[in-house]
Write a structure and sequence with these properties.
The complex is a heterodimer of chains A (294) and B (326). With 294 residues, chain A is mostly helical. Chain A has 14 helices and no strands. Chain A starts with 14 loop residues before the first helix and ends with a helix. The relative contact order of chain A is 0.13. The longest helix of chain B has 32 residues. In chain B, helix 9 runs antiparallel to helix 10 and helix 11 runs antiparallel to helix 14. In chain B, a hairpin with a 2-residue loop joins strand 3 and strand 4. Chain B has a two-stranded antiparallel ribbon with strand order 1-2. A two-stranded antiparallel sheet of chain B has the order 3-4. Chain B contains 14 helices and four strands. Chain B is mainly α. The chains are: A mainly alpha (294), B mainly alpha (326).
């Protein structure tokens, strides 16, 4: 956890501590149980489980369900769809929200508090508040030749736009708090030396925000990858779906084979889990950066 | 996790830390002369472009929801929009068999989240904050559900609750005719079944927020309390918990928002069938369902918006006030 922990002298084993470990270990196992259950179901052939029941010792364990789910549902294709949406969305969100944050945190214009409020409040709204007009708007906007569907509706571009608009609220808030903590002398000096505003942002402030940007980038990647709602409403063609809504279709097609659906769900979760385990620290600090506004 | 990274947010401390002090020392208005016209244009672009996008897609649409709520429109051409005043709301409040159950379920959702996973998350955070062995392992186990997509969580819990093949019924033998328990379809059970899944996820989220809050607690407070001979529980109750006030505020707001946003899990689980109606589900069904009544769907969205704003506005006003004072 923290490197600041002082090395304590070894204390003898206390019963209270042992009890605490027993409680925590039991709870942790209980928390992992549903996921382990899904893994177990996914590893067993459907024929065997339907014959012996799901709560039974396995005769055979194999990765067949995983390979079948992967191939039958054309998962690679949907994974690419998700990437086409998520990568630009994350990058553009970080870029735009860092510009807004720079503006409100470095300059004392009258507007900036109101501006920050608008951004932050916008991110806290439930998505369903705006979905009906948004859906109509997406159907109205014609983009012949730009998107496959010829509209904003049913296109990756449409999803990128709404992700950027929605998430930039949260990021602008977090980044502006972060930028405020940077010493003001940095930009003041640059301003007196006649550096342009863009240079201040691009060469002085932004490099200092790397840790916050990394944390937010991790968080956004996972959120956007996991998004289900926007894609459900704003994408209609199966071909264009990102992986989460494609999974929903898979389960509709193969609802009679829970083992296969379990394998599909777990496969969908794997990229998220990899990102989380590799960038655990960034993910958690991103989450708490946004929440700790004491 | 955050203490040993440079990502330490200056707001992580309960008291306004010295890091936020320069807020009042912004570039004074006099410095504006130092900005060339090009600089001003750049600044206008930097703030303008993101604002236009955000306002257009989030606030203009929210406003459109409000306006459309007073109309009847089938979505074909703009000239078919009829102004109907409060008709949609009248019908919603008096004539829609799903509306009041949905409101009730949203409220139950919030009450359950605040009463079960939130204290549980606090308990776990306090225990894991003691720097015990395997703390990282425990943390990962509890936090894992927060990382997963709600849709995936829905599928995983379907495997647990499936009345024929699920874990629970297989273990207790309730998948045979005669004593058959339908966790997903029974309107008296399914909401509680889903709430267990939602709580499972929410606990880890709350744990992380409280862990971050506890990191901001000054260690000397604990020491002083221990020197005075207070027990662990007394220390927590009289010293630590009061210091966690800002975290509690955030937790409360986050939980309310989560309860209002609840959608994915229910949709994947049983499409919001009888017993699990939520406001978010009603709005969405009006778009992707059979009936596409735009005005009516917007009226439900307005109810959702009003409830959200009652929470969001006071919270943000108090947050920004604190920042102003800092």
């Amino acid at each position: 956890m923290s490197t600041l922990a002082l090395k304590k002298p070894r204390t003898p084993v206390r019963p209270a501590r042992v009890l605490l470990h027993v409680v925590l270990a039991t709870m942790a196992l209980a928390w992992l149980a549903p996921l382990l259950w899904a893994v177990y179901a996914a590893l067993r052939p459907y024929a065997e489980t339907s014959e012996k029941g799901y709560v039974s010792w396995p005769d055979s364990l194999s990765l067949d369900n995983f390979t079948n789910a992967f191939e039958q549902s054309d998962m690679t294709h949907y994974f690419v769809n998700t990437m086409i949406i998520a990568v630009p969305a994350v990058l553009v969100t970080l870029f735009l929200s860092s510009m807004v944050a720079f503006y409100v945190s470095r300059f004392d214009f009258r507007l900036n508090l109101a501006l920050l409020l608008v951004f932050t409040a916008g991110n806290l709204l439930p998505q369903q508040v705006i979905i009906t007009p948004l859906y109509r708007l997406y159907l109205l906007v014609d983009l012949p030749g730009i998107t496959m569907s010829g509209k904003l509706y049913d296109s990756a571009l449409g999803l990128v736009l709404i992700h950027v608009a929605f998430q930039s609220g949260f990021c602008a808030f977090v980044l502006s708090n972060y930028m405020r903590s940077l010493p003001h002398e940095l930009t003041e000096a640059a301003l007196v030396d006649g550096a342009s505003v863009w240079r201040m942002y691009w060469q002085i402030v932004l490099p200092l925000c790397k840790p916050a940007m990394a944390a937010l980038g991790t968080l956004l990647s996972i959120w956007i990858y996991n998004d289900f709602f926007w894609a459900l409403v704003l994408i209609s063609t199966g071909e264009n779906m990102p992986i989460t809504s494609a999974l929903n279709n898979l389960s509709g097609t193969y609802f009679t084979d829970p083992n296969l659906v379990a394998a599909g769900a777990l496969l969908t979760a794997i990229p998220t889990l990899i990102v989380y385990f590799v960038l655990q620290r960034q993910f958690v600090s991103g989450l708490t950066l946004g929440a700790n506004k004491g | 996790m955050t203490t040993d990274t440079p990502t330490k947010s200056p707001e992580a401390a309960p008291e306004p830390p010295p890091g936020t002090a320069p807020v009042t020392k912004r570039i004074p208005q006099g410095h504006k002369r130092l900005l060339t016209r090009r600089d001003r244009l750049t600044l206008g672009f930097m703030a303008g472009l993101p604002t236009i996008l955000h306002v257009a897609l989030v606030w203009v649409t929210a406003l459109a929801s409000i306006l459309l709520a007073f109309t009847s429109w089938n979505g074909i051409g703009f000239d078919s929009i009829q102004w109907v005043g409060l008709e949609n709301f009248k019908e919603l409040f008096t004539n829609n068999p799903q509306f009041w159950p949905a409101v009730e379920h949203n409220v139950i959702w919030f009450v359950v989240l605040i009463c079960i996973p939130t204290p549980l998350g606090l308990f776990l955070a306090v225990q894991l904050d003691k720097k015990i062995k395997f703390s990282r392992v425990y943390q990962t186990a509890f936090f894992l559900p927060v990382v997963l997509s709600m849709a995936v969580i829905g599928f995983v819990w379907q495997l647990v609750y499936n009345p024929d093949t699920g874990l629970i019924n297989s273990v207790i033998g309730a998948n045979k005719p005669g004593h058959y328990i339908d966790w997903i379809g029974d309107p008296n059970l399914n909401l509680w079944a889903i709430l267990i899944a939602a709580s499972w996820r929410h606990t880890g989220y709350m744990m992380i927020l409280y862990l971050a809050g506890l990191k901001g607690v000054d260690p000397s407070l604990r020491e002083a309390s221990a020197l005075d001979g207070a027990s662990e529980w007394q220390t927590f109750k009289n010293v630590i918990f009061p210091v966690l006030r800002p975290t509690n505020t955030v937790v409360l707001v986050v939980t309310i928002i989560e309860a209002l946003r609840a959608f994915d899990l229910v949709f994947v689980f049983n499409k919001g069938a009888e017993g699990t109606e939520l406001l978010s589900i009603l709005v969405t069904n009006n778009i992707i369902g059979e009936s596409s009544r735009i005005g009516y769907g917007s009226a439900i969205a307005v109810v959702l918006l009003l409830i959200s704003l009652v929470v969001i506005i006071p919270y943000l006003v108090s947050t920004f006030r604190k920042e102003r004072r800092a």
